[in-house]
Amino acid sequence: MVSCNSSVMYFGGSILIFSFLPVHGIIIFEFVQVACLTPMNILSTWQANAASGMAVHDDCKLKFLELKAKRTYRFVVFKIEEKQKQVIVEKLGEPTDSYENFSASLPADECRYAVYDFDFVTEENCQKSKIVFVAWSPDTAKVRSKMIYASSKDRFKRELDGIQIELQATDPTEMGLDVIRSRSF
């Protein structure tokens, strides 16, 4: 797990939150506009920022890069381990796996993140590929899980450089192949 040091600074109506990830040497900056600035606003903004971002296991980034660059996998399913407070790889799809294998790998009653390498042929008869990010949050999932996944999504997506399509789905029809095709052109 990666430790993160965060600081908060006030600049005339804005709050600057910056976090330093010592292992990776990364500094993350975030400006937040606050209409009515009080010490409680500063504290609650900082706490929300700190609570919303789960650590991302290095394996997540590695497997995503292998999907993107080497096409080693058709899809990757990610899971938040609440006890470890980090996103981990849960399942890898073989390059020959179908979209049905991908959709079947998402649990019916639990939230997940996933990326899918979607191959298609354009009207000009060119073979193309797009990487689709799916934020899977079924209606039957626990409310706490939905909140954790929703608040951690943007932080996690920033780690995956190269996502071309984003879908938020609560049931399989919202992430069907027809939906992905319509967003690909």
Q: Characteristics of this structure?
A:
6-stranded mixed β-sheet; 185 residues; globular; alpha+beta; 3-stranded antiparallel β-sheet; Severin
Give an overview in words.
Belongs to the actin-binding proteins ADF family. One of its GO terms (cellular component) is actin cytoskeleton. Residues 51-185 form the ADF-H domain. The structure is a single chain. This protein is an alpha+beta fold. The protein contains 5 helices and 9 strands, in the order βββαβαββαββαβα. The longest helix is centred in the C-terminal third of the chain and has 17 residues, at 143-159. The chain folds into 2 domains: 5-52; 56-184, 3-Layer(aba) Sandwich (Severin), CATH 3.40.20. The strands form 2 sheets. Strands 4-6-5-7-8-9 form a 6-stranded mixed β-sheet, sandwiched between helices. A 3-stranded antiparallel β-sheet has the order 1-2-3, with helices on one face. It is globular. Strand 2 and strand 3 (26-33) form a beta hairpin.
SSE order and pairing:
Blueprint: E1 5-11, E2 14-21, E3 26-33, H1 39-52, E4 55-56, H2 58-70, E5 75-81, E6 86-93, H3 99-104, E7 112-121, E8 127-136, H4 143-159, E9 165-169, H5 177-184
Parallel strand pairs: 4-6, 8-9
Antiparallel strand pairs: 1-2, 2-3, 5-6, 5-7, 7-8
Arithmetic mean of pLDDT: 82
Helix segment tally: 5
- Strand segment count: 9
Strands ordered across the widest β-sheet = 4-6-5-7-8-9
User: What number of domains?
Assistant: 2
| Low-pLDDT ranges | 21-26, 29-35, 41-51
What is the molecular shape?
A: globular
Tell me the CATH topology of the largest domain.
Answer: Severin
The CATH architecture of the largest domain: 3-Layer(aba) Sandwich
